[in-house]
Amino acid sequence: MTLGYLVRRLLAVILILFVVTFAVFAITMILPGNAAVMILGEYGTDEAVAALERRLGLDQPWYIQYSNWISGILQGDFGQSLRLSLPVADVVGDAFWNSASLAITALVSVTIIAIPLGVVAALKRGTTADLVIGLFSYIGSSMPEFVTATLLLVFVAGPALGLLPAGGFVALGESVGGFAAHVVLPATTLGLILTAHISRQVRSEMSEVLASDYIRAARLKGLSERRVIRHHALPNSLAPAVAVISLDIGYLLGGIIVVEEIFAWPGLGRLLIYALENRDLPVIQAITLLLATVYALTNLLSDIIIAFLDPRVHYA
After folding, report:
1. CA 119 – CA 123 distance, rounded (Å)
2. Who is most buried in 128, 138, 260, 308, counting CB within 10 A?
3. What letter does residue 87 receive in the DSSP assignment?
């Protein structure tokens, strides 16, 4: 991987984010409803609504509003929440770290579980273990988040067992045990489909690698099976899985919106729903731009990891 490639990719990320800012701004502009009316309520007078629109800058042409928003972002100022009357950076920042703690927990758990499952299924291809893992993958892939969340709430957090809290949030800094108890169910809901998807990908790639010529050559050299798997088969099988994981980040970000609402997790998902309901345009724009940034940088990071895992990959 060359420095020029990295520079071009970073410039492409910047260009993509610029396009995203324009698209997000345009979409929020055409949303139905009036932010000033929603803030003042249905009994707000026309004079009060007009005065609030002037104070918030909502009466200006769209291109003036867009240029003011972009210039503020470049200075680290995402504006003021129309509904909460707080800086958007503070509101979105707190929600982002709450969502990040949930997403990282789910992603780390998925990686630890899914990769070994895929490897075992490939090594035991055609056996009962392979059949059981494949059945789990098909069931996991077919269950949407709201179904998984409902089943977990009924059978794990319900009155019959009551093993874990049904919802809520405890910050990691306040109590590690409290955070762990509250994060299990939402992380499991997010991770089930990802685990099924990634384990199937690893099994498919691992099966192809094990049937390749260089693996047969390594075995003919007298290398132990463990060394063949660890140093030759596994690294080449993980490179495509990394690409799949980076693409699944998009699913993870989308799934968080549903899961956070079901489990009352105070993250970006719940905040986005609140902002949409109250037409809080600066918050909607900031969250969407933040999610797009995370997704773009994650894809760039996956390309770098793949280049390190597979020496055959060269980015010109």
Report:
1. 6
2. 260
3. B
Record the pTM: 0.79
- Three-class SS state of 80: strand
Surface-to-core class of residue 5, CB atoms within 10 Å of its CB (0-12 exposed, 13-18 middle, 19+ buried): middle
Region at 162 (left for phi over 0; alpha for psi -120 to 50; beta for the rest): left
Please tell me the predicted confidence (pLDDT) of residue 174. Answer: 85
Query: Which amino acid is present at 292?
Result: A
Quick one: tokens of 5?
A: 């490639």
Structure tokens at 283: 């918050």
CB of 140 closer than 8 Å to CB of 192: yes
CATH of domain 89-309: 1.10.3720.10
Residues 240 and 197 sit within 8 Å (Cβ to Cβ): no
- Among 75, 53, 25, CA closest to 286: 25
What does the pLDDT look like over 95-126, one tens digit per residue? 888 888 888 888 888 888 988 888 888 888 88
Boundaries of every domain in the chain: 19-74, 89-309
Q: Is the dihedral of CA 181, 185, 188, 190 positive or negative?
A: negative
**Contact between residue 312 and residue 297 where contact means Cβ atoms under 8 Å apart:** no
Sign of CA dihedral 176, 184, 246, 211: positive
Are 75 and 62 in contact, with CB atoms under 8 Å apart? no
Please name which of 189, 177, 169 lies closest in space to residue 101, comparing C-alpha atoms: 169
312: which 2 tokens? 């055959």
Q: What is the pLDDT of residue 9?
A: 80
Place of tokens 């179904």: 147
The burial class, CB within 10 Å (0-12 / 13-18 / 19+), for 171 is: middle
